[in-house]
Amino acid sequence: MARLNARHPWSHNDHFHRWILSNLPARRRKALDVGCGQGGLVAALAPLFDTVVGNDADPAMCDDTADRCADLANVTIAGGDWAHLDGPFDLVTMVAVLHHLDVDAALRDVRDLLAPGGRFLVVGLAPPRSVTDHLWDAASMVTNPLIGFAKHPRVSRVGPQPPSYPVQDPVMAYDDLRRRTEAVMPGARMRHRVGFRHTIAWTKPA
């Protein structure tokens, strides 16, 4: 699969930026992207919010985002503990980040940081455990090269490359994560997606 994907490479995480941008809250004063990586989502959010804060635990990723957003006056880069940043935020996003964190604590911290009516949008990963999980993984295996070909028709000769950002394999199963999320954020919508991903969307009650 890695060799096949390398022929038509595409970013599974960046692919879901469009989903995030189509689910933004109505009020757009301040946004926080936790685990901002190389800054693609921060840059995409900047024209849509008064202020965007990019946060990453990796100093190199903060530097990458700062370089990418150097010309965006409403973007701030903050390293360290995101849970103690000055809120409230109308949007908090995490793309392939939640499984790196203490999930229960992170969900509570996001709930506290969000303004009433604010939205939490997650693109995440979980190991397949249930029959449904495995069916979605099978669908991802089939669609993965098709999406790659559509995004990158020309065959790449470079071969598989290591990721340019810190990675960690997820350990919490989808169903367990859904239960934990619902306990902290009642009414959260969690869905399987192709690309070996799932999404979570929650709006804090007004």
Structure write-up:
The mean pLDDT is 90. The longest helix is centred in the last third of the chain and has 21 residues, at 131-151. 34% of the residues lie in helices and 22% in strands. It has a single domain (14-126, 168-203), classed as Vaccinia Virus protein VP39 (Rossmann fold). A hairpin with a 3-residue loop joins strand 6 and strand 7 (197-203). 34% of the residues are buried. A seven-stranded mixed beta sheet has the order 3-2-1-4-5-7-6. The protein has helices at residues 2-7, 17-21, 40-45, 59-68, 103-113, 131-151, 174-184; strands at 30-34, 51-56, 75-79, 89-95, 114-124, 189-193, 197-203. The chain is of the alpha/beta class and 206 residues long. The chain is globular and about 45 Å long.
Write the layout of secondary structure elements.
Blueprint: H1 2-7, H2 17-21, E1 30-34, H3 40-45, E2 51-56, H4 59-68, E3 75-79, E4 89-95, H5 103-113, E5 114-124, H6 131-151, H7 174-184, E6 189-193, E7 197-203
Helix pairs in contact: 5-7
Number of helices: 7
Low-confidence stretches: none
Could you name the CATH homologous superfamily?
Vaccinia Virus protein VP39
Protein structure class? alpha/beta
Radius of gyration: 17 Å
* Series of secondary-structure elements, N-terminal to C-terminal: HHEHEHEEHEHHEE
Quote the average pLDDT: 90
Distance between the termini: 45 Å
Summary keywords:
206 residues, Rossmann fold, 7-stranded mixed β-sheet, SAM-dependent_MTases_sf, methyltransferase activity, Methyltransf_12
